[in-house]
Amino acid sequence: MYHFGEGRTQVFVVGSLGVLKSDITQTYPIAGATQTFTSDESSFAWGGGAGVKVFLKPQISVRPQFRLVLSEETGVMGQATGSVAVGFHW
Q1: What predicted TM-score, i.e. pTM, was given to this entire model?
Q2: So where are the chain's domains?
Q3: Backbone dihedral region of 47: left (phi > 0), alpha (psi from -120 to 50 degrees) or beta?
Q4: Which one, of 8, 11, 7, 6, lies nearest residue 50 by Cα?
Q5: DSSP assignment of 48-59
Q6: How many Cβ atoms are within 10 Å of 14's Cβ, its own excluded?
Q7: Is the pLDDT assigned to residue 22 strictly greater than 80?
Q8: Nearest Cα to Cα of residue 66 among 87, 52, 86
Q9: What are the CA-CA distances from residue 73 to residues 2, 3, 43, 57 (Å)?
């Protein structure tokens, strides 16, 4: 994580590398019966994100952020997440 600036409001970027493990089971009704498809794979993954940390008080901050994780398996249809964290600093 890299923060730009040191003021009350700090924009940041984050990057990641790793392995994404997916274990998927899907069942579909087909012609009066059911068909089950399974997938169990691991692949190289990478990601990045950005957000802003806002200090409400010197010891308390709020940090909304957005992240996107892509992999060889998922390609551009990766995992997108948004979150908000509360930080306590001492």
Answers
A1: 0.67
A2: 2-88
A3: beta
A4: 11
A5: EEEEEEEEEETT
A6: 14
A7: no
A8: 52
A9: 28, 31, 6, 43
Tokens of 71: 């992999």
Phi-psi region of 32 (alpha: psi -120 to 50; beta: other; left: phi over 0): left
Q: What pLDDT shows up at residue 65? A: 94
pLDDT digits (tens, 9 = 90+) for 26-68: 898 888 888 888 878 788 888 999 999 999 999 999 999 999 8
Place of tokens 């990641």: 16
Question: How far, in Å, CA of 24 to CA of 73, rounded?
Answer: 12
Q: How many CB atoms lie within 10 A of CB 71?
A: 21
